[in-house]
Design brief:
328 residues; alpha+beta; seven-stranded antiparallel beta sheet; two-stranded antiparallel sheet; 14% strand
């Protein structure tokens, strides 16, 4: 049985309610089994008590402990003699390999510093612009963006930096089918909204990598559960439409534009996760420069509350959430 006091902490803020709803939906929709959720709660709540003072009521620190439970090594002194289970990629629904190319989005900072091969980077800036922009505050940024867009119409093929990965090392690579994205004039804004990337703010420069489906097959692509999402505040397990809920081996993003407009259906595009792709296994990848995000989507505090209430309507109220999680 989960500690009722810690469950109260989880439900004390909208971000915690979002995680709680996705936890139950992952269970109810058959993504994970009860034993897995029980094991996760046991390790998660114990780590929270280990890292912070017993009785602390801080939902942000509790969610930080969740992220550490899933993605980081066990800290020294915690549960000596026990091996921490792997909580990533635990979805039970076996997925077929996509037939089409898939995509992942990164910022220009990540692209420049961690993804593109240094020699290819030098060729790019030598042929096109004096310096590849990293953020909109750099001198001459708008002129550089215009030049880069003009010079790299369509996709740009580049090698990956040695020892790099697509996707956070030790984390996951999130991807969608390339054909599901609608890219128009305001490409960065449109992709940000379709993928539910609420953490991408005004002024950030986005780059899309296009990946062959056989690479994600080898990396074990699966539908994401609440354990894979951890701190993603616009993640949800359950979709609004029967069609999307019928595609059980794909998750679906939240379309931020639809959510901002308070539409009844806010489904975005399909999504899966896999292990990070090592440069040594991928070689070259096509990239598309999307430009800079023109506006920040919404106010996170208010939007977190609205989103948590939208998810909560499936279960009625926090008392129902607490009862179900406590009794797992």
């Amino acid at each position: 049985m989960a500690n009722p006091s810690t469950v109260d902490v989880l439900l004390s803020g909208p971000k915690g309610v979002i995680v709680a709803c996705n936890l139950l939906h992952s269970l109810d929709d058959g993504l994970v089994d009860k034993a897995t959720v029980q094991e996760l709660l046991d390790w998660w709540f114990a780590l929270y008590d280990f890292l912070y003072a017993p009785g602390l009521t801080d939902v942000e620190k509790l969610l930080d402990a969740l992220d550490k439970t899933v993605f980081e090594r066990k800290p020294p002194g915690f549960r000596k003699g026990q091996s921490k289970p792997n909580f990533r990629l635990r979805c039970k629904l076996k997925a077929r390999t996509p037939n089409n190319n898939v995509t992942n989005i990164s910022t220009m900072l990540i692209f420049r510093e961690h993804i593109i091969h240094e020699e290819d980077y030098k060729k790019l800036i030598g042929c096109h612009i004096p310096s590849l922009p990293m953020d909109v505050n750099e001198p001459g940024i708008q002129h550089a963006i215009h030049q880069l867009k003009a010079c790299t119409v369509g996709k740009l093929r580049c090698r990956l930096r040695p020892n790099s990965t697509l996707g956070r090392s030790g984390g996951l690579l999130w991807f969608t089918e390339e054909r599901s994205l609608q890219i128009g004039k305001d490409s960065a804004n449109e992709v940000r909204d379709q993928l539910g990337l609420v953490d991408r703010k005004k002024g950030e420069l986005l780059v899309m990598s296009v990946i062959s489906p056989h690479h994600v097959k080898r990396a074990g692509g699966l539908r994401p559960s609440f354990m894979d999402a951890t701190l993603h505040t616009r993640f949800r397990v359950h979709s609004d439409t029967k069609k999307n809920n019928g595609r059980k081996t794909w998750g679906h993003t939240v379309n931020l534009e639809k959510f901002a407009d308070n539409r009844s259906h806010i489904d975005g595009v399909c999504e899966r996760v896999c292990r990070p792709l090592a440069a040594s296994n991928v070689g070259t990848v096509d990239f598309l420069f999307l430009g800079d995000v023109q506006s920040t989507r919404g106010k996170n505090g208010d939007d977190d509350t609205a989103f948590s209430q939208r998810l909560l309507q499936y279960y009625g109220d926090k008392k129902t959430l607490k009862k179900r999680i406590t009794n797992l």
